[in-house]
Amino acid sequence: MSFYPGITEGTVRADGVEVKYYDSGEKPGGGAPIVLLHGTGGSAENNFAALLPMLSFRHRVIALDFVDEIPEESGPLALDHFVSQASAVINKLSPGRPVTLVGYSLGAVVAALVAAEQPELVRNLVLVAGWMKTDEQQKLRNSVWQQLHDSQSAALAEFMLLTAFSSRFVATRPPAELQKLIAGIKAGPSRARKMRVNRTVDISAKLSAVRARTLVIGCSDDQMAPIRHSHALFGAIDDSRFVEISSGHAVVHERPAELFTRIDNFVQGHASDDAGAVLAPVHA
Amino acid sequence: MTTPDTAVTSEAGRSHENDPLNNVDVIIIGTGFSGLGMGIQLVRENNKSFVMLERAADVGGTWRDNTYPGAACDIQSHLYSYSFRPNPDWSRVYATQPEILQYLQAAAREEGLIPHIRFGAEVLDARWDETQERWIVSTPRGTFAGKSLITASGHLSDPKFPNIKGIDGFTGEIFHSAQWDHSVELEGKRIGVVGSGASAIQIVPEIAETATHLTVFQRSAPYVIPRLDYFYTDAERGMFRKFPHTAQAIRDELFWGNEARFPQRRGVPAFIDQITEVADNHRKTQVTDPVLYKQLTPDYAIGCKRILISNDYYPALGRPNVTLETDGISHIEGNAVITSTGERHELDVLILSTGFEASDLPISHRIYGKSGASLAEHWSNGGQAYACTTVSGFPNLFVMLGPNTGLGAGSIIYMAETQISYIAGALKYMRENSVSSLEVTAEAEEEYVKTIDERAQGTVWLSGGCESWYVDPRNGRLTTLWPDFMSQFRKENGTFKDAAYVVKTHANQGQPMFAGGR
C-alpha cells in the first residue's frame, strides 16, 4: 500500500487465515495506537486512504484488511471471524497496551464486539456509521443489492453510489467525477460475502458489556446505516458521547477531515466530552 | 483613561488634540478583512474605546487596492466572508473584487465602525511607553495612545517590486498590479506583464483581448486547475436568505473540502497524484501547442507554490498576439525589456505582477517594543509569535495575520476569526483583572515556534523544490504559512490562556507576576 510514506506491512495468522496489516509506526510521545477497521465494501486502503494519513501526522495508526474467504472448517463466515482477525492484529502490534479502536460501517460492528468481548484490548472506541441490529429498511436495500449483483446488472454501481453518498454530494459533483466514482466502485473488491454477514447482524445483547470510553459518530444523510442506528448505539453504551457529521454513509470519502478532527479531539480528551454528551456541531 | 461612552458621530473638522479617540483602550492598524472583523467584535461587545488607523481613504485593504482587470478571489465567497455576517446575495461562487469590497464597506458601515476609523492615518511609528504602559502611535492625523495595539495590516498589502537592472529608466508606462493606473489606456498597446502568479493569471486574459501584443514574463510555471465557477440563481439567493442553514451547509462543505487537501501539502502520494492529475489534465486539454505546453509544465512538486485556478489563462496564452517569455529578464533599456538570451521586447506598458512583501512585513519596521528595538529586528531570523499572535518584548501587542497564519488551501478569514476570538479573550482578561501589561515570555514564544518549525518539516513548501513567498528567503524558514490543519489552528490559538504570559496589574504595579505560577 502506497498511501502513506514509510508505512510497514505484515501479516498475522488468525483462524487459519493470513491477515494483512499496515502500521505507520511509533510516534514519539504518542498515546495509544489507533487501529482502523474497514467496512463491507472496503479494504484498509479503500476506506482509509484519507483518514490514515491525517491521523498519522500525530498518532501511530494501524489498519488491516479483513479476510472473508475462510477455510471450510472455520466456516460459515460470521462476525466472530472478523473479531478474531482484529484482536490478532492488536495483540501482535500492541501487546499489553490497549488501543483506540475505530470501526467504520461493518467495522464498527466488529469494533463494538471486540470492545464487549475483550475489554482489555480497547481503551477508546470510535463507532463511525455503525449499527447494532439489521432492520427491515437495511434488509430491503441489501435485497435489491443482491438482485442487481446476481443478475450482473450494470445498474449495480450506480445504485451503490446513490446509497453510499449523500444526495447533496452526488448532486454537486461534476459529471466526470461521478463517472470516476462509479468506475471505482466497479473495480472495488467483492462485497458479496460480507453482505451476507450484514443481513443477520445483531449485537444488541452484547453492548452493555462495552466499558471503553466511546465516541459514536452518526451521519445525517446515511442511507445504509441510517443515523437512528448511531442514536441507538449511543443509547446502548454507557460511557459514550455522540456527534453528527453532515454526510452520507461514505463519510470517509465525503468528510474525511471532519471525521479526522472529531477522532483526534476525542483521543486528545476534551473536557466537554463527558459521557452522555451530544457534541455541538462545528461551523467554519 | 478617557472612555467615550457615546460613539463619535463625525470626525470632520476635528483637530487632533481634541480627537476623543486619541487615548483609547485599543488601537487597530488597518481596515481590511482582519481589522474590520476585530472592530466588529469590539462593537458587538459594546467596547467603544477603540480607534482604527487606516492609511488610505476607504476601508477594504487588499480588496480596495487590487482593482486590476479581472481581480477576484480564488476562495469561494460563501467561505471567504465573515461567519458572523453571512451574505446570501453573493452573485457567484468566486466573487470579483468590486463585490467583495462592497461587502466589506457595508460591514464597516452597518456595524457602526466608520466613527472609529481615522482615514489618512498611516502609522509612521508605534512605540511602547513603559512608564505609561501604553502604545504611542504617530500618524499624519496626530498621535494616538492605546493600552493595546492590534496590527491588522495584512500580509498581502505592500507591493513587492522586482529588482531588475534599468527598471527605473523604463520610458513607457509602468505600474504594479496592486496600484493599477486606470488612466493608462491599454487598448492597442504593446504590454508586458512580469509574473505568472495569482494576480497575473487573472490580468492576462482580461488585457490580451485588446492589446496589440502582450508578452508575459514567466519565471516559473504555475500549476493551474479548473475554476468551477457558477452564478447563483435568484431562487438560490432567496433560499440562502430564507433558510440560512443552506448557505451554512455550503460554507461547511467548502471548509472541510479545503481541510481535506492538507495531506497534499504533507507529500502523501495518493493526494499528490490526485491533484497533479487534475492539473495535468487541465493543461493537456487547454494547451495544444507543444512548445507552449513545455513552457507551462511546472518543474517542482505541486502545492509548493500556490495552486492557481483559471479557465481562461491558458487559452489567453495561446492567442496569436500573446507571447510567453521564459528566458528570464536581464535588464531594461529605454522602452525595451531584454531577456537573458538578448531578445528585445519593446513595450508601451509594463505591468509588474510580482506579488507582495509577505515575509519581511513592512509594518514590523515601524513598531518598537520594550527595549526600543523594532519588531523587524526581533524578527531578523524570520517572523515568529506565540500562538501566532503575541511577541515577547512587545507587551499588549497583538499581530493579526502575521507569522504562520497564511494558508496553502483555505480561507484566511477562518484564521482571522480565530485570532479575533483569541485577542477578544485577552482583552477581556485584561479588563477583568485590571491588567496594565500582558507580555508573553521569551521561553513560551521559542517553545511554540519550535513546534511550528517541526511541523513545517516534510511539507511540500520546504521540500517541493520551488521558490515562493511562503518561505523567508533570509533563513529558509516557513514563516508565512500555518503548517497544520486549520481546525488545529483554532484548537491551539482560538482561546486565550494566561499561562505563557507575564502579567502586571494596576494593583501589583512594578511587581510583575508570572500568570502561569498562580
Automatic annotation (TrEMBL), chain A:
A Pfam family matched in the record: Abhydrolase_6
**Which InterPro entries does the protein's record reference?**
AB_hydrolase_1 (IPR000073), AB_hydrolase_fold (IPR029058), AB_hydrolase_sf (IPR050266)
AB hydrolase-1 domain boundaries = 34-260
Provide the leader sequence positions: none
TM ranges are none
What is the official name of this protein in its record? Pimeloyl-ACP methyl ester carboxylesterase
- Organism for this UniProt entry: Pseudarthrobacter enclensis
TrEMBL record, chain B:
PANTHER family linked: FAD_NAD(P)-BINDING DOMAIN-CONTAINING PROTEIN-RELATED (PTHR42877:SF4), L-ORNITHINE N(5)-MONOOXYGENASE-RELATED (PTHR42877)
* Domain of life (superkingdom): Bacteria
Identify this protein by name: Cation diffusion facilitator CzcD-associated flavoprotein CzcO
Family listed: Belongs to the FAD-binding monooxygenase family.
SUPFAM superfamilies named in the record: FAD/NAD(P)-binding domain (SSF51905)
Q: Which UniProt keywords apply?
A: FAD, Flavoprotein, Oxidoreductase
Q: What is the lineage of its organism?
A: Bacteria, Bacillati, Actinomycetota, Actinomycetes, Micrococcales
